[in-house]
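[09:14] KT: can someone run the structure on this one? pasting the chain below
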Amino acid sequence: MRKHIKAQVQEALNDLADNLGGIAQLIQISSREEVFDLLVQMQELVISVGNTVESWEGTENEVTPKLEEACELLYQVSCSLEEEEAWRRMLQGLVQLVEDIQKDVEEKIPARLEVVFLPYHVSMWDSLESVWMAANEDKGVDCYVVPIPYYDVKPNGMQGEKHYHGNRYPDYVPVVPYWKYSVEDRKPDIIFFHNPYDENNLVTRVPEEYYARNLKQSTDMLVYIPYFVAEEDGPADHQCYTPGVLYADRVVVQPGRIYEKYCRVYTDVLRRNGVEKGYVPAEKKFLPLGSPKFDKIWNTPCEIKDLPESWRRSIIRPDGGRKKIIFYNLSIGAFLQNPEQMLKKIDKVLEFFRERQNDVVLLWRPHPLLTDTIDSMTPLLRQEFLQRISNFKEEGWGIYDETPDPNLAMALSDGYYGDSSSLLTIYRETGKPILLQDADILD
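[09:31] RB: done, structure tokens below
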């Protein structure tokens, strides 16, 4: 039985016990019609509790027979209002019976938690996956993964194309379509999410019903886990007080200086705006537990035989040996700083690795939202960027990674080249060499 449903049952039984405590006096001072009406209402309450228990626990439970007995006793009391000795004896039995029912509900009906995970872009699922795995293994938890849709944001701020990644999750993740799970109706005990920006996102945006402020209305515990990991100096200041951070009851962050920055910036913002009393204090909100993204990279298997055929063709030499693999990562921030220069840099990088394709494979994986960002922020360059991707795919000497999970590329590769980003922080955990690109250096 859901935790909040059990609480409702217990509250109804408490009301029943309170009414029983005063009914003897009521019989003596009120009309028989008033007493009879109250007994009928109490019967209806017992029937309602019984229906709720059966709907969650089935017909084979220890509480239902006692509720049926209580309903019968209430009826017998209503038929014996003219016989004081009889109704007093039955009321005494009813009081004891309701106490037994309350004890059985408390001890024999476990309160199950309903936990829902609301990812939106499948490439960010790794920020939630290890938490989902732990919750899914807990026998006291009903766990749901409900990928939600999102929209591109046009340069004029209007809503663009709709996307839904529910069919792109690993086979071991049971997905529930968002149109079959109403957060508002289900009122899950805990909601985990990774989209913190709500209406402030200039590239992609989820439907308003999934904004943090609205999710907060449908749960007792809203938990935000960042979709990114930060370097040692912490995230940008604005990321410490996004809507997701402000409305969440708990925020899971990396420990040490990153945790300290979240606490400091968040608290300063609340103080400057005079709203400390309206939000969860930093020491309670932020949990320095690390990022599930690290769990994912440590547990990602990487076997050549399991790779797509096109990947294997690029990696394996004619003599059966394996080429070195360089993971080439493009970030949104670096591209937007100087888009035209970055396109020139991409050309030089591709030329460099094309000339060395017999020894090295370039595994190119731009940020999954980079194309959407170009559409929104620099639409005139969209075709130029897409043409480079198209040429790279057609030439076939490298690997263009369009898989939903970046962890395979990180586990498979022998080294990292590209922009500084949250992926870089994770890649360091592999212990493999890293080289950052400088778009201004074309040689």
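[09:33] KT: thanks! The first strand starts at residue 113 and ends at 118.
[09:34] RB: yep, looked fine to me
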